[in-house]
Amino acid sequence: MTQKNEIGALILRVTLGILFFIHGLVKFQGGIENTVGWFESINIPGFMAYVVALIELVGGIALIIGFATRLVSSLIALLMVGAIITAKLPVGLLGNGQMAGYELDLAFLAMAIYLAINGSKLLSLNRVLFNQDSNEVKRAA
Asked: Whole-angstrom Cα distance, residue 78 to residue 100?
């Protein structure tokens, strides 16, 4: 991967990580039971609120530090597909005036798919711990 691609992947990884960390944190700070209730109201088992919030919170941190980027990004892509299908599709791409549409979810999905396919090695914990592709990253930098 070229230096520009690695810098772009780093920007996507850290941005997606920060945004998902905040989403997960808000679910717990706002009272996870509220999220459980909302999940149940749209016919999703309540325990899935905990699963989603943990993936967002822990996955967000993992992306920020560059740990298991491809795995975490794959999980986030699955979350986005689930969110679009179960909650956002009925209100349309741009929403209905009362609820946001799925345009942001599509952007998150695209970012997650890119990272799941390509990874992000620059300034990543994986590179430090496992010396993954260190020669390639050194050439890119």
From this structure: 19
Mean confidence (pLDDT) of the chain? 92
Q: Which two tokens stand for residue 13?
A: 């990884």
Handedness of CA 77, 83, 33, 31 (dihedral sign): positive
Phi, psi of 23 (to 5 degrees): -60, -45
Residue 131, SS3?
coil
DSSP secondary structure letters along 39-100? HHHTT--THHHHHHHHHHHHHHHHHHHTSSHHHHHHHHHHHHHHHIIIIIGGG-SS--SSS-
pTM over 0.90: no
139 contacts 4 by C-beta, under 8 angstroms: no
Token output for 43 = 């016919």
Query: Position 126: which residue type?
Result: N
pLDDT of 78 over the 90 cut = yes
Q: Read off the amino acid at residue 50.
A: Y
Rounded to whole angstroms, the Cα distance separating 75 from 80 reads 9
Answer yes or no: are the C-beta atoms of 102 and 88 closer than 8 Å: yes
Q: Which residues of 113-132 are buried (b: 16+ CB within 10 A; e: fewer)?
A: bbbbebbbbbbbebbeeeee
